[in-house]
Amino acid sequence: MLNTPATSTQVTHGQRLWLYATVALVMTFLVIPCILVIPMSFSDSQYLEFPPRSLSLRWYEAFFTSPEWIQSAVVSLKVAGLTTVLATVLGTLASYGLYKATSLFTPITRGLLMLPMMIPLIFVAIGVFFVYARFGLNNTITGLVLAHTTLAIPFVMIAVGNGLKSFDPNLERAARSLGASPVTAFLTVTLPQIRISVFSGMLFAFVTSFDEVVVSLFVSSGANSTLTKRMFANIRDQVDPTVAAISSMLVALSIVVLIAAQFVKRKDA
Amino acid sequence: MRSGRVNLREVHKAYGSFRALDGVSLDIKAGEFLTLLGPSGSGKTTLLNVIAGFERPDLGSLLVDDVEFITRPPHKRDLGMVFQNYALFPHMDVFSNVAYPLKLRKVDRPSIRRRVMDALEIVHMQHLADRRITALSGGQRQRVALARAFVFEPRLLLMDEPLSALDKNLREHMQIELKRLHRQLGMTTIYVTHDQQEALTMSDRIAVLDKGRIIQLDVPATVYDRPNCKFVAGFMGETRFLPVERRDQTYVLDGRPLRLADTRAASSTGEAWLMVRPERLRWQGDADRDNRIEGRVLDVVYRGDCNQVSVSLPGGHEVAIRHSGAERQPLPQPGDTLALWLPAEASLVIGSAAP
Amino acid sequence: MTLAMDGAPGMPLNRAMLKSARRRERRIFSGLALPALVLVACILLIPFAWLAWLSLFDAAGNLSAQNYARLLRPAYVGSFLTTFKVAGLVTALCVVFGYPVAYLLSQLSARAAQILLVFVILPFWTSVLVRTYAWLVLLQRNGVINDWLLSMGVIDEPLALVHNLTGTIIGMVHVMLPFLILPLYASMKAIDPVLLRAAANCGASPSQAFRQVFLPLSMPGLASGIALTFVLCLGFYLTPALLGGGRVAMWSTQIADAVSKFSNWGAASALSVALLVVTAVVLWGVRRLTDALSFSAGKP
């Protein structure tokens, strides 16, 4: 086995053992915190040992019986849901508009719309905090949704842009030549063809908003605190084991999302 | 059905400094099968896209049945188009693809069903109406694309290299079928191709394009046998050119005056060439009526249906002739000297630009 | 040629009509991007302009360079140095660990790569906060890592792995690795494997083929991966704030503190402007470098 060639240039598996070892190490490093937190969240101890000496659901119970935790989870879901809708619509329209329009301004517009992805979040956070203070948008759902939508638009645009890149423009032309108005052609031909990309854009938008911490730290508080803001506050100074329960649920959610994404991709192929 | 007249006037389209269309004017008769033929970058596809409404020219007029179409959006032009890659909607089955233009025109459901099935029958696809597009072969997709383009009885049928993705046998079969379909439907058809054989086989008239201009517009036989310039002659068939000298009213090759069918294609100034195609050269001839070309055999290449004999002429020029085995002449060997004959009616002197 | 056609002879055919139709079309399609553009302007550009303007005035409202002069104080200079040190170290570690992973992924069959990619994508999709928290738990004084090391006898006393620079670096490498691996993998995937066979055919040993063919061709992808990682590190807030435990003063934590602890908007905005400028310079520099390293044809 070790002497069989691993590449077309006849390097054997044996000669590449070091490579396999390094990669295994890095992969372990990458998944360990995501995976280990799950069994640890069932620990009965304040210190979350691994492997847990005795199992309990006390940290899950702490979460589900706390009105504050539940309230902030609802806020996060609400904000993420609204952001997903708004960012998907705006991002898809913008991406499609830039795909169709060829003018001097399209690269500039594209660059501006991608900016939220490249600018440090801490900067977005204080800028938004500063401006919201003047318009009374701090600590409101509206304020959070607008900020998160701005952050999510680039991800939607990248996803939809990728879809449009592999979309055959002749399909839309064919629809037009057969009598479809621009809007009808988009809705009946273009959109069904890029639906997977739009869907993955939606997924990105949801995750961007739901996981966002830094902006929420500044512009949400009190009854409109997001889940991440409350988690941050609870672990800044000491390790709150309730957060382990929430983290496990979030990791489980990412795994579900990953599997769903794979499933959709396979079904589409 | 006698609608479908097209009149193009002075259509210009530039991309930066590149002139894709440089003042194209063209009149297409109702019911005509007209081919736009040219190499890539000649402007033929741009011209088709202008007619379809996908490209906006900088300048020009497009009349369809005497109505100005030039700024009309594509969906209000009522033109059927067949795309190079077919552009069938992959998320719909065969039936829905063909029904799409009828649904947009709010045709009632029973009529849609009847008309789609009729169209599919014409292209021999009625048994595959509920197939998915991805389950069709190239030839089948071609037929569905065709049915979709004519099912709503458009005034014009536009085709952008529709056969280029098919293999040779299927392509030749489809050429004949398309021609037959055109006769059956009687629709004005504008066909774009870079394949001269396809253009010659199918067209009523051919417009040869180069650098955004129409160089020659005529029936296939004239375009092939009486090209009006070196470009058109070179684009059709395996043409070789021998430079000739002008002397008084006639032309001279290797000191011998040429007997010509037609000298109109050569302008009175500038360079001139004798056009020589392998299938027009003869092994035997008459010194009083035909033109004699002498040279030495360079090589003999077996091609299945014939042997192709390359002959080098004085001045480093080269011509080719086919030897099918039916000639009395035995197959020559490399190094042999040969006398070939070009009949006067096949002898044409042309210039570098159309006169 | 005269252009006589229904209308006045010599009039350019339909020129004005075509021009206005083209302009209308462009306006409609560009208009689709307008709502998104307005949002980005309101949430990003206006605050930036406002803060940049603010940074030019002192507390009394007079025009001054005071806010920028303050950046030269030792506390701030120290935080700049820490930021660059951390960003450089994290990026270097990411290259060392990320390159072999991307390389192996690019060499595997599509199916095997798909499976291994899950190990990279799962953390990528998991909230940074969750992962940072997980490290906090694992690395704390009586956490799992210290427990294991103690029980194996490697150490006698629990190590301080968290609330310091070590913890910050471990956490940041974990967050940044996918950002380096994914683009690098994509660019390595685009390298034609036939080139390596060609090199072998010319007599290159596998290691020569790697060094002389694969490595240079992977450079543009590596450069953009490094740029992305470095720039993300420069403005990174969450992990340093949590795993640094207030002991690692980075640029981002200074900005946050200036606002939330001291309400000093002048300092915060000057720091932000400086951070943006440095980020832009790094991105621009790397773009130039990537262009120079790129071998793809068709580039002017």
From TrEMBL, chain A:
It is a multi-pass membrane protein. The keyword Magnesium does not apply. Keywords: Cell inner membrane, Cell membrane, Membrane, Transmembrane, Transmembrane helix, Transport. CDD domains: TM_PBP2. InterPro entries: MetI-like, MetI-like_sf. Residues 73-261 form the ABC transmembrane type-1 domain. It comes from the Bacteria. It is found in: Cell inner membrane; Cell membrane. It holds the Pfam family BPD_transp_1. Gene3D superfamilies: MetI-like (1.10.3720.10). PANTHER family: INNER MEMBRANE ABC TRANSPORTER PERMEASE PROTEIN YDCV. This is ABC transporter permease.
TrEMBL record, chain B:
It catalyses: ATP + H2O + polyamine-[polyamine-binding protein]Side 1 = ADP + phosphate + polyamineSide 2 + [polyamine-binding protein]Side 1. Keywords: ATP-binding, Cell membrane, Membrane, Nucleotide-binding, Translocase, Transport. It is an enzyme of class 7 (translocase). It holds the Pfam family TOBE_2. InterPro entries: AAA+_ATPase (IPR003593), ABC_SmlMolc_Importer (IPR050093), ABC_transporter-like_ATP-bd (IPR003439), ABC_transporter-like_CS (IPR017871), Mo/tungstate-bd_C_term_dom (IPR008995), P-loop_NTPase (IPR027417), PotA-like (IPR005893), Transp-assoc_OB_typ2 (IPR013611). Its EC number is 7.6.2.11. Coiled coil: none annotated. Residues 6-236 form the ABC transporter domain. It comes from the Bacteria. Belongs to the ABC transporter superfamily. Spermidine/putrescine importer (TC 3.A.1.11.1) family. Part of the ABC transporter complex PotABCD involved in spermidine/putrescine import. Responsible for energy coupling to the transport system. The complex is composed of two ATP-binding proteins (PotA), two transmembrane proteins (PotB and PotC) and a solute-binding protein (PotD). This is Spermidine/putrescine import ATP-binding protein PotA. It comes from Shinella yambaruensis.
TrEMBL record, chain C:
The lineage of its organism: Bacteria, Pseudomonadati, Pseudomonadota, Alphaproteobacteria, Hyphomicrobiales. Belongs to the binding-protein-dependent transport system permease family. CysTW subfamily. CDD domains: TM_PBP2 (cd06261). The keyword Nucleotide-binding does not apply. Pfam families: BPD_transp_1. It is a multi-pass membrane protein. Keywords: Cell membrane, Membrane, Transmembrane, Transmembrane helix, Transport. The keyword Nucleotidyltransferase does not apply. Signal peptide: none annotated. This is ABC transporter permease. It comes from Shinella yambaruensis. It is found in: Cell membrane. Residues 80-286 form the ABC transmembrane type-1 domain. The chain crosses the membrane at residues 32-56, 76-103, 115-139, 159-182, 221-245, 265-286.
